[in-house]
């Protein structure tokens, strides 16, 4: 009887401590120590990962528009204003086509000539993970807004110069529309996919716009 009593007490003591241990195990199972979440959240908050690229994506095209509007205030030389605006448009075309589109939205397009001398237009869209999409959402919005709004402004300039009979500015305005519309059209085709039939139909348009301008 004396030996049975300690055994019963041991059993009661074990029974009493088992729920506490089980609760402790449950609590530890609910806690997940993922030290990568903080870094991932900080990465997603930094939505503009390329501030310098984003700046130059808008700098050249906005500078060309401002120079065109205000050139009569600063200089009476038509040739100087013409050359300045045309250089800004050329810098904008090159930077958007070769740098900002690739870094900000993961798209690029170019022309390739094969061994037979045939011209091929290539439109590529990089594979972007969901984390990168969330991180570059602001950059993509800035990229497409700048890409769409500025050609519309140049179209307004075209009708303004046409109706006000400023025919000497029409060549410059047409160059601005052509260069920026070429980039817009190229990136739209990249967004739609390089295998689309529309990319084949617009190859002649891009060749005329880029090379003739």
TrEMBL record:
- Pfam annotation, one family: DUF846
UniProt-annotated location(s): Membrane
Ranges for region Disordered:
1-20
The main location class comes to membrane
Its GO biological process annotations read: protein secretion; vesicle-mediated transport
Please tell me whether the keyword Transmembrane is annotated for this protein. yes
User: A Gene Ontology CC term for this entry?
Assistant: Golgi membrane
What InterPro entries does UniProt report for this protein, alphabetically?
TVP23-like (IPR008564)
Keyword tRNA processing applies: no
Q: Write out the entry's keywords from A to Z.
A: Membrane, Transmembrane, Transmembrane helix
Q: How does it sit in the membrane?
A: Multi-pass membrane protein
- Write out the transmembrane intervals: 52-69, 75-94, 142-163, 169-190
UniProt family annotation: Belongs to the TVP23 family.
Its name, as the record gives it, is Golgi apparatus membrane protein TVP23 homolog
Q: Which organism is it from?
A: Diceros bicornis minor (South-central black rhinoceros)
């Amino acid at each position: 009887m004396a030996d049975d009593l300690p055994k019963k007490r041991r059993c009661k003591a074990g029974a009493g401590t088992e729920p506490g241990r089980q609760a402790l195990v449950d609590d530890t199972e609910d806690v997940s120590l993922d030290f990568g979440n903080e870094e991932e959240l900080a990465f997603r908050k930094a939505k503009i990962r390329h501030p310098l690229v984003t700046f130059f994506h808008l700098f050249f095209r906005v500078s060309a528009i401002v120079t065109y509007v205000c050139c009569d205030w600063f200089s009476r030389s038509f040739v100087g204003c013409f050359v300045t605006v045309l250089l800004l448009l050329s810098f904008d075309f090159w930077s958007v086509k070769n740098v900002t589109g690739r870094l900000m939205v993961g798209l690029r397009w170019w022309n390739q000539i094969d061994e037979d001398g045939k011209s091929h237009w290539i439109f590529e869209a990089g594979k972007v993970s969901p984390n990168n999409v969330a991180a570059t959402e602001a950059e993509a919005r800035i990229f497409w807004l700048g890409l769409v709004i500025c050609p519309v402004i140049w179209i307004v300039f075209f009708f303004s110069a046409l109706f006000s009979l400023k025919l000497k500015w029409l060549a410059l305005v047409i160059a601005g529309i052509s260069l920026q519309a070429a980039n817009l059209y190229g990136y739209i085709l990249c967004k739609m996919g390089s295998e689309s039939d529309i990319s084949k139909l617009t190859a002649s348009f891009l060749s005329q716009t880029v090379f003739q301008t």
